[in-house]
Amino acid sequence: MGKRGEPSERTCIVTRLTKPVDALIRFVAAPDGTVTPDLRHRLPGRGVWVTAERPAVATAVQKRLFAKAFEGNVKVEEDLPDLVDRLLSTAASAALAMARKAGTLVMGFSKVESALMNEPVIALVHAQEATDDGIAKLQAVARRRFGPAGVETIRCFGSEQLDLAFGRTNVIHAAVLAGPAGTNLLARVGVLCRYRGGNNSHAGDGDRSFDAFTELNDLSLGTVGTP
């Protein structure tokens, strides 16, 4: 989100379309001229903006649009789209850890099932390794409580990322409870999935899902932290 007083919209250097800053990624040139993602819009210097989707960042690299936008010599790493993915994944993992510390995450199949029946659950988290049977059972409980739409479903984390967030091993299922930390988690996950080309309203039997999977998942299992 932009700072107070700054424009709420910017123009993407790839599409040339004006969009809200939340739908874009800001890039700045570091002191050594390296083009650097500025996800929090805090780094000093002139910024240029790219639609927050992997193909757009890849196009900006391939067509050398950063050099044109910065009007000078800049260094653009070929793996810049991968770097953005890793940073977004780390931010989502950090939000997951913050939600756990805030007490808005419940883990374990039985506890998640109980939360779905009694607590203000806003989303379910299933590790990528979760079985279809376990997912289906919890989704059925969610639909009985919340209706055909169920609740949001997050499936962009591997079990290793969930283990890091909870400080435990073999975390497969979790429930996200209502609250600022839970809302922030959904926002961070939504940005990551949109970047990867996932559909954050993908439906299966009425379920809405954050379920972006790409070959980059093995690159994004970094230590939980804030970029």
How would you characterize this protein structure?
The chain is of the alpha+beta class and 227 residues long. The protein folds into two domains: 67 residues, YlxR-like (Hypothetical Cytosolic Protein, Chain: A, 2-Layer Sandwich); 131 residues, 2-Layer Sandwich (60s Ribosomal Protein L30, Chain: A), CATH 3.30.1330. 38% of the residues lie in helices and 20% in strands. The chain contains seven helices and eleven strands. A six-stranded mixed sheet has the order 6-9-7-8-11-10. A three-stranded antiparallel sheet has the order 4-3-5. The chain has a two-stranded antiparallel sheet with strand order 1-2. A hairpin with a 5-residue loop joins strand 3 and strand 4. The longest helix is centred in the middle third of the chain and has 22 residues. The protein starts with 8 loop residues before the first strand and ends in a 17-residue tail after the last strand. The C terminus is likely disordered.
Short characterization:
By secondary structure, the chain is an alpha+beta fold. It is built from seven helices and eleven strands.
Helix and strand arrangement:
Elements: E1 9-11, E2 18-20, E3 24-29, E4 35-38, E5 47-51, H1 54-62, H2 65-70, H3 80-101, E6 105-107, H4 109-118, E7 121-126, H5 132-146, E8 152-154, H6 159-166, E9 173-177, H7 180-196, E10 202-204, E11 207-210
Parallel strand pairs: 7-8, 8-11
Antiparallel strand pairs: 1-2, 3-4, 3-5, 6-9, 7-9, 10-11
Helix pairs in contact: 1-3, 3-6, 3-7, 4-5
